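Predict both folds.
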Amino acid sequence: LGANACGRGTALLDGLAWAIERRPDVVNLSLGTPRRDLWPRVQELLDEAWFRGIVVVAALSNRPIETRPAHSASVISVATHTRARGYDPFEFYVNPTAPPEFGAPGFRVELANGRREVVPVTGNSFAAAHLAGVAALVRAKHPAAGPSEVRAILRATARNARGPGPERQPRQEN
């Protein structure tokens, strides 16, 4: 990335291809491109990752624009949410009207800066990194789970999918 955290779309393509060649379990993409001329190649790479079993987690842009890879069906898309309670590393939400598919902690994240200070920062990149970490834990527990299975597990275990918490009432059997 260069000035203003901007770079060239071709660097995104090269980086994604490099990552796919190494076959990681999970790739976190906290960047994207609004350049429509690059979208077909981005999609080819995302489809290759999908069929190789690589889970790709992508942050939506912090601006209200459509970008790739975040607006692709081949990725798990994430944006930030504000925490309603104290910090819980497994607090993330499924969004029934995607994109984004998920909301994860990314609001006022405490980050160390170069002056040995902790500063609060906000952005969808932090949320994507958070959910990529959860996806990596899922893959560690279920190594054979592909991207669609990881997505299903995340959807099923999201805070709003599993109810308000331990105080919920047990299901009544008829």
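Second protein follows, with its predicted structure tokens after the sequence.
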Amino acid sequence: MTDTIFRTLPEQIASHLRQDIISGKLRPDTPLREQELSERFGVSRGPIREVFRQLTQQGLLVTEANKGVRVASQPSPSVRDLIRNLRLEIETFVITAITGKVDAEDLVHTTSILDQIKLACEQEDPDTLTELDLMFHQSILNLYEGTEIIALWLPIVLRMMLDYQRHGELIESYYEHKRILEAILTGNTTEAIAALQDNIK
């Protein structure tokens, strides 16, 4: 996700590492070392420790005594099903709450992300697509009042994205997200939820 001047240094570094993890550049169980990351990002160890704390809270890293920090293991199939159901429940709750109450103006940002998803699919860029996928869903959740929804959702969706492998053509992702957005815009809650279920697998 694009860094801005409003993000602290640890948040910027966390964003880079988060993307490396969910894109598969950093595989599950890969050890991470403070010194190596300090040198990579040109910072002291203090910001790196804060990054480790943030990403551990989000479920992407695991810290073990005498073993250090590593990328979290991929969830087992049964746990992955649980994570998927929790994510679906949260996003279904929000879609049910906002559909029929938001219009095209409210969804300008989501529409812009959808356009970027199409471009990433056409350019066969799965790393960017993964990032935009998360941004798309978060932009919808942001339409719900209050910040507690994102706090609940983010660790769940990031855990689900560990070592995520999408099957089929990338362009299918664009059409799945387009179907969700169009259903919300037309006020069709049932279709929006059905489209969401088809997208979150």
